Amino acid sequence: VGCDRSRNLVDICGEKHFQAFVCDALSVPIRSSSCDACISIAVIHHFSTAERRLATIRELARLLRPGGTALIYVWAMEQEYKNQKSKYLKEKNSSKNKDKEMNTGTAQRPLNDQGPDNSSQDPAWSDQLLNDFKDESCGAKPVAEFRLPVHTNRTSFHSQDLLVPWHLKGGTKKKEENVDTVLVPSGSKELQELSPVFHRYYHVFCEGELEAVCRSLDCVRVQKSYYDQGNWCVILEKL
């Protein structure tokens, strides 16, 4: 059984005859202690406070029966670990865009230049204020002027709290949507509007951070903690 915040993604699951429903990871409408196993892949790093990230893991643990296990993946601050670059960084050369940045407020990227979670990532700065804490651990630079940096595609992270541009593909922009657009040169050198650009929040985890959050819960024990291609991962067991 799957669940997601996005109605569109849940509808796709239904079309493929999978069981899925819309819900919030902070409040999953499933009976406590009813699941043999749960997975949370690339979800918890979207919650903007330490309290909400902890609450999400606590909710995941609530669903597990005693002895049940959970697998959690979050994006890692360390995209180069033990002298090895992640696949994300290694793909930098193959995904370079040669188009020059134009005066549209964002750099130009082809739609097929996708990062984790299918997001194109452009260098820019957001006007969104950072109301939560500014974490300077693991060598991260403090966020300048209370603004969230927007991550540059295929590069190392310089802040734990950042925004990743998301180019909506295959959709039709509604008139009431107040979003930016990206203009890129077409083959005939004419400018072509491609898609709306949204900015998604990420908190990238430092080494040991996810494990420490999990260990703060007395209802689970950490079976395994490891690094996998730019992600920090934990396997939990419900006590």
Automatic annotation (TrEMBL):
<keyword id="KW-0808">Transferase</keyword>
<protein>
    <submittedName>
        <fullName>ALKB8 protein</fullName>
    </submittedName>
</protein>
<keyword id="KW-0489">Methyltransferase</keyword>
<dbReference type="GO" id="GO:0002098">
    <property type="term" value="P:tRNA wobble uridine modification"/>
</dbReference>
<feature type="compositionally biased region" description="Polar residues">
    <location>
        <begin position="103"/>
        <end position="123"/>
    </location>
</feature>
<dbReference type="GO" id="GO:0030488">
    <property type="term" value="P:tRNA methylation"/>
</dbReference>
<dbReference type="GO" id="GO:0008757">
    <property type="term" value="F:S-adenosylmethionine-dependent methyltransferase activity"/>
</dbReference>
<dbReference type="GO" id="GO:0000049">
    <property type="term" value="F:tRNA binding"/>
</dbReference>
<dbReference type="Pfam" id="PF08241">
    <property type="entry name" value="Methyltransf_11"/>
</dbReference>
<dbReference type="GO" id="GO:0005737">
    <property type="term" value="C:cytoplasm"/>
</dbReference>
<feature type="domain" description="Methyltransferase type 11">
    <location>
        <begin position="1"/>
        <end position="72"/>
    </location>
</feature>
<dbReference type="InterPro" id="IPR029063">
    <property type="entry name" value="SAM-dependent_MTases_sf"/>
</dbReference>
<dbReference type="GO" id="GO:0106335">
    <property type="term" value="F:tRNA (5-carboxymethyluridine(34)-5-O)-methyltransferase activity"/>
</dbReference>
<feature type="region of interest" description="Disordered">
    <location>
        <begin position="86"/>
        <end position="126"/>
    </location>
</feature>
<feature type="compositionally biased region" description="Basic and acidic residues">
    <location>
        <begin position="86"/>
        <end position="102"/>
    </location>
</feature>
<dbReference type="InterPro" id="IPR051422">
    <property type="entry name" value="AlkB_tRNA_MeTrf/Diox"/>
</dbReference>
<dbReference type="InterPro" id="IPR013216">
    <property type="entry name" value="Methyltransf_11"/>
</dbReference>
<dbReference type="GO" id="GO:0005634">
    <property type="term" value="C:nucleus"/>
</dbReference>
